[in-house]
UniProtKB/TrEMBL annotation:
Record's signal peptide: none
Pfam families per the UniProt record, alphabetical: ABC_tran (PF00005)
InterPro entries registered for this protein in UniProt: AAA+_ATPase (IPR003593), ABC_transporter-like_ATP-bd (IPR003439), ABC_transporter-like_CS (IPR017871), ABC_transporter_ATP-bind (IPR050166), P-loop_NTPase (IPR027417)
Lineage: Bacteria, Bacillati, Bacillota, Bacilli, Bacillales
Claim: Transport is one of the keywords in the record: yes
Record key words, sorted: ATP-binding, Nucleotide-binding, Transport
Name of protein: ABC transporter ATP-binding protein
PANTHER family membership: ABC TRANSPORTER ATP-BINDING PROTEIN (PTHR42788:SF2), TAURINE IMPORT ATP-BINDING PROTEIN-RELATED (PTHR42788)
Molecular function in Gene Ontology: ATP binding; ATP hydrolysis activity
Native organism: Paenibacillus roseopurpureus
SUPFAM superfamilies cross-referenced by the UniProt entry: P-loop containing nucleoside triphosphate hydrolases (SSF52540)
Domain ABC transporter: from-to ranges: 4-235
C-alpha cells in the first residue's frame, strides 16, 4: 500500500512569449488504498501533474512524497496509464499488455499468460498476437489500461482511462476497475472529465480550477461500498453532481481570476 502526498506543486512551461503558469501550489494526497479522482477543465494541468508524479517532469516548486519518502523526479515507482495509449508499435498486443509485469521482473511466459487471460476479459480475445496498429483508439486504450492494471506498483495513476470508450464498454471497465481495486485496495489517482464517473468510483474528489490549476474543492463521496449502479439514482448523488457541475461551470466561464 502506498500513500501519495503532493505539497506546494507549482509548474510553468517556457514558451516563446514567456513563461506559462500551469500549476499553482497544488497540495493533495491519496491515502493508502484510497480511490481519489481529479476533475478539472481541459487544459488545466491534470496531465502535467501526472507527469510530475511519475517523475517525467521536474516541478518548478514543491515535492512528491510516497510513504513519507521524497521521490520528486524519480521514475518507475507507480503504475501509470497515460492519456494517450503509448503502446510500442513493434510489440504484439499481449506483449504490450504484459510490459509492466515483465519490467517488474516476472517471468515472461507467466506475464504473457496473465495478459492473455485479461485480454479476453476486456473483449480483445483473438488480437493477442497482432500489432497495436490494427486496433481502434478505444481498443488501444483498453490495452493501455490492462498494462497499468497488471503493473505491480501499489499506486496507480490513470489519466482519463475510459475517455474514448463507448458507454457500455466504459461501464464494464469501471466495474472491473472497482472489482480489482476492492480485492487488493491499491491506491488510485484517477483523472476524468465525467462527474458521474468520479462520483461512482471515488472515495474523494479534488476539483481543479482553470490553468494555472489550484484545488478549488475537495469532497468526500459518502456512498457505501461495494458501489452498485443504483447509487446513480440516489438524490444525494444528483445533488453532488449538480454541485460539482456548478464549480466546473464557474471555472469555464472565468479565466485566470484566482
Ligand atoms: N510540454 C509542454 N510545453 C508547453 N506547454 C505545455 C506542455 N505540456 C502541456 N502544456 C500546456 O499546459 C497546459 C496544461 O496541459 P495539460 O496538463 O495537458 O492539461 P489537462 O491534462 O488538464 O487537459 C495546457 O495549456 C498545455 O498546452
Ligand atoms: Mg490531460
Amino acid at each position: 500500500m502506498k500513500k501519495l502526498e503532493l505539497t506546494g506543486i507549482g509548474h510553468y512551461f517556457q514558451g516563446k512569449k514567456g513563461s506559462v503558469p500551469v500549476l499553482d501550489h497544488i497540495d493533495l494526497h491519496v491515502n493508502q488504498g484510497e480511490f481519489v479522482s481529479l476533475i478539472g477543465p481541459s487544459g488545466s494541468g491534470k496531465s502535467t501533474l501526472f507527469h510530475i508524479i511519475g517523475g517525467l517532469i521536474q516541478p518548478k516548486s514543491g515535492d512528491v512524497h510516497l510513504d513519507g519518502v521524497k521521490v520528486t523526479g524519480e521514475k518507475g515507482l507507480i503504475a501509470y496509464m497515460p492519456q494517450q495509449p503509448a503502446l510500442f508499435p513493434w510489440r504484439s498486443i499481449e506483449s504490450n499488455a504484459a510490459l509492466g509485469l515483465e519490467v517488474a521482473g516476472q517471468d515472461r511466459s507467466e506475464a504473457l499468460a496473465k495478459a492473455r487471460e485479461w485480454l479476453v476479459k476486456v473483449g480483445l480475445g483473438g488480437y493477442e498476437r497482432e500489432l497495436p496498429h490494427v486496433l481502434s483508439g478505444g481498443m488501444q486504450q483498453r490495452v493501455s489500461f490492462l498494462r497499468a492494471l497488471l503493473s505491480p506498483q501499489e499506486l496507480m495513476l490513470l489519466d482519463e482511462p475510459f475517455g474514448s470508450l463507448d458507454a457500455l464498454t466504459r461501464q464494464d471497465m469501471q466495474a472491473w476497475l472497482l472489482a480489482i481495486w476492492e480485492q487488493n485496495k491499491r491506491s488510485i489517482l484517477f483523472v476524468t472529465h465525467s462527474i458521474e464517473e468520479a462520483l461512482f468510483l471515488s472515495d474523494r474528489i479534488y476539483v481543479l480550477s482553470n490553468k494555472p490549476a489550484c484545488v478549488v474543492e475537495e469532497l468526500t463521496v459518502p456512498f457505501p461500498r461495494p458501489r452498485v449502479e443504483t447509487v446513480l439514482q440516489d438524490p444525494k448523488f444528483q445533488e453532488l453532481r449538480h454541485y460539482v457541475q456548478g464549480l466546473l461551470r464557474r471555472e469555464t466561464t472565468t479565466h485566470g481570476s484566482h
